[in-house]
Amino acid sequence: MSTPEDSAEAQAVRERYARRVPQDPRYSLLNPAALLALQERQRAMLSLFKRLGRTDLGALRLLEVGSGSGSNLVEFLLMGFAPQHLAGIELLPERHAQARERLPEAVDLRLGDATVLDIPAKSVDIVFQATVFSSLLDDAFQQRLAKRMWAAVKPGGGVLWYDFTVDNPRNRDVRGVPLARVRALFPQGRLLARRVTLAPPLARAAVRLHPALYTLLNNLPALRTHVLGWIAKD
Q1: pLDDT band at residue 2, thresholds of 50, 70 and 90?
Q2: For residues 222 and 212, what is the distance between their CA atoms, to the nearest angstrom?
Q3: At what angle do helices 32-51 and 200-209 cross, to 10 degrees?
Q4: Pairing relation of β-strands 153-164 and 224-232?
Q5: What is the rounded CA–CA span in Å between residue 134 and residue 182?
Q6: Mean pLDDT of the chain
Q7: Which of 75, 92, 109, 72 is nearest to 22 (CA)?
Q8: Quick one: 10 exposed, middle or buried, by C-beta within 10 A (0-12, 13-18, 19+)?
Q9: Most buried among 6, 86, 176, 216, by the most CB within 10 A?
Q10: Which residues of 163-175 are buried (b: 16+ CB within 10 A; e: fewer)?
Q11: pLDDT at 21
């Protein structure tokens, strides 16, 4: 059963997403800045899996919290994860429906608030979140979600984290999640993190001149706004 706090923040998230521009061309893969950022993140994830010794991706069970329209789960399929080992939880019905249309039936998709849905403890190798926590403005809600995510991870697994660390002064519906906050949310985990993703406004301006400028500028870590992290559970 949800609490009033759960319901209030869940409803606030729905309202924040409703204010976003549908099919925003800035995030279309026809935009070189978005495509290059995606490819960079994919390379970083695959490098991380290799570093962790997780080369048999088809044997790993992965749950995405905030699975949206299924784009990230499609990526995991392309990386080699097995559809029957993938699952997603999404709060927004329209995005959940889009994911159901595009993903194989073997992918387990659930609709609802991940802080109150029944998620079996120690049931998955990886719990993944991508820019979910930066859309949660209630600290207590963040903590409840992190607790549920951590409980779902098997010993030896971890939380795969991708989110931005700095505030966006043009968007009051989001806030950055610095590394100190990530550590506070998962105090029992061991955090391995690297900065990725050229600051999107800078990336969009750069690729208008030439796509190669994305890679050139992204060589400067200070210009990267996101973190790809692995929070290991012993």
Answers
A1: very low
A2: 18
A3: 120
A4: antiparallel
A5: 11
A6: 94
A7: 92
A8: buried
A9: 86
A10: bbbeebeeeeebb
A11: 67
Nearest to residue 9, comparing CAs of 144, 185, 105, 154?
Answer: 144
- 3-class SS letters over the chain: CCCHHHHHHHHHHHHHHHCCCCCCHHHCCCCHHHHHHHHHHHHHHHHHHHHCCCCCHHHCCEEEECCCCCHHHHHHHHHCCCHHHEEEEECCHHHHHHHHHHCCCCCEEEECCCCCCCCCCCCEEEEEEECCHHHCCCHHHHHHHHHHHHHHEEEEEEEEEEEECCCCCCCCCCCCCCHHHHHHHCCCCEEEEEEEEECHHHHHHHHHHCCHHHHHHHCCHHHEEEEEEEEECC
What b/e readout covers 136-153, taking b as 16+ CB neighbours within 10 angstroms?
A: bebeebbebbbebbbebb
Cα–Cα–Cα angle for 18, 14, 125, nearest 5°? Answer: 120
- How many residues would you count in the chain? 234
Which residue has tokens 């692995």? 230
**Phi, psi for residue 163 in degrees, rounded to 5:** -165, 165
Is 52 within 8 Å of 75 (Cβ atoms)? no
pTM of the model: 0.94
Task: Assign domain 27-232 to its CATH superfamily.
Answer: Vaccinia Virus protein VP39 (3.40.50.150)
Report, as an integer, the average pLDDT of 50-56: 96
* 88 within 8 A of 120, measured Cβ to Cβ: no
Q: What is residue 7's predicted lDDT score, i.e. its pLDDT?
A: 64
Tokens 């993140």 -> residue: 41
